[in-house]
Amino acid sequence: MISRYAIAVLATAATLVFAGSLAAPAFAQGDFDTPTLTLGPTGLAKQTITVTAGASGAPAGFTVWWMKRTDFEANGSQWWLYGDPSQGEAHFTGVPTLNVFPGDASSFKLGPNQSITIEIGDLHDESGVTTTNWRSGWDGELQYGTEYVFCAFANATATTYQSSFTENFNTQTIQTQDCTFTIGYWMNHPEAWPTSCTPMQLGSNFYSAADLMTILNTQPQGNGAISLAHQLIAAKLNICQGANPTAASACINAADALISGCGADKLPPFGGCNLAPGSTSTLTQCLDNYNQGLTGPGHCQETPVKHSTWGQLKVLHR
To answer: Which residues touch 149 (CB under 8 Å, ≥6 apart)?
Structure first.
């Protein structure tokens, strides 16, 4: 059975037959060989996927679809044909910009048997990729501890397939990670903040998530309390999301004790708490080392923060 949305889209086109994974489309089929997918490491709200073109390549790029397994099964283990909010759709057609390793591919358009490794997460900041407005509350990110189904095909255009579909692959994102993110990551991913972490106590006072973001966006301007608070906020968020706290616990306790010296006077811009940088620099560096992964469990593997991304998507290598 084809979903109602699919019938509407294909009212004047051919019908597809579904059986577990998608059969070859009844139009434009066979122009390109079917690519293959290999699922790589799964992380917090992300999935690494290697796409390998067939012998005919994917000269117009490729498309990856994904859906929560629960939604997929509720739809009769069928894919929607473009545009349903329960299905993520990313069309990789142009030139990527978030290249982070030497030798990265210069295009999502693949030659014969060429492979490219991508990371599905929050996609909207990457160039060369167009996406549907999938689950806008998560800004396109995968959700933590959730099982997903993926498939892919070679493009004819950004919205038309010209190969058969790959088989479906299941994967589950993890709930927490025993690793750390930097301040930049947390500033650019408020949707990833563990709800259990707020309100957060800094020194003698409690701050909401909105308050913490305001503090993170406040320039120190010679105030050591703000620099220390920035690293302290990131460290506490890292621990809330699963990072082992051992390497930072003493520094966190000492930082809270130092900020407590301001009493009820909150951190700027909510108050006038001010500490000399010389009194905070050692603790600030200790927490920075933890958040950067120089100490503790190590830095989480993620894409660069937004330029304008935990990037959202990155090309890892080819």
So the answer is: 66, 67, 68, 69, 72, 168, 169, 170
User: Which residues does 159 contact at the CB level (< 8 Å), separation at least 6?
Assistant: 82, 91
List, edge to edge, every strand of the sheet that includes 46-52.
Answer: 36-43, 46-52, 115-120
Segment 279-295, tens digit of pLDDT: 999 999 999 999 999 99
Are residues 228 and 259 in contact, defined by beta-carbon separation less than 8 angstroms? yes
Does residue 92 contact residue 122 with C-beta atoms inside 8 Å? no
Residue-wise pLDDT for 214-228, tens only, equals: 999 999 999 999 999
Q: What domains, with CATH codes, occur in the chain? A: 4-172 (2.60.40.10), 183-292 (no CATH)
Which secondary structure element, helix H or strand E, spans residue 50, and what is its range?
strand 46-52
- Whole-model pTM above 0.85? no
Contact present, 33 and 55 (Cβ < 8 Å) = yes
Q: What ranges make up the beta strands (E) of 121-262?
A: 129-131, 147-157, 160-161, 169-172, 200-202, 205-207
Kindly report, residue by residue over 161-209, the tens digit of the pLDDT. Answer: 688 889 898 888 776 778 898 998 899 888 778 888 999 999 999 999 9
> CA 226, CA 215: separation in Å to the nearest integer?
7
Residue labelled with tokens 């951190």: 267
3-class secondary-structure state, position 160:
strand
Mean pLDDT of 70-79: 92
**How far from chain centre, in Å, is Cα 14?**
35
Instruction: Kindly report the number of other CB atoms within 10 A of residue 55's CB atom.
Output: 8
CA gap 136, 147 in Å, rounded: 18
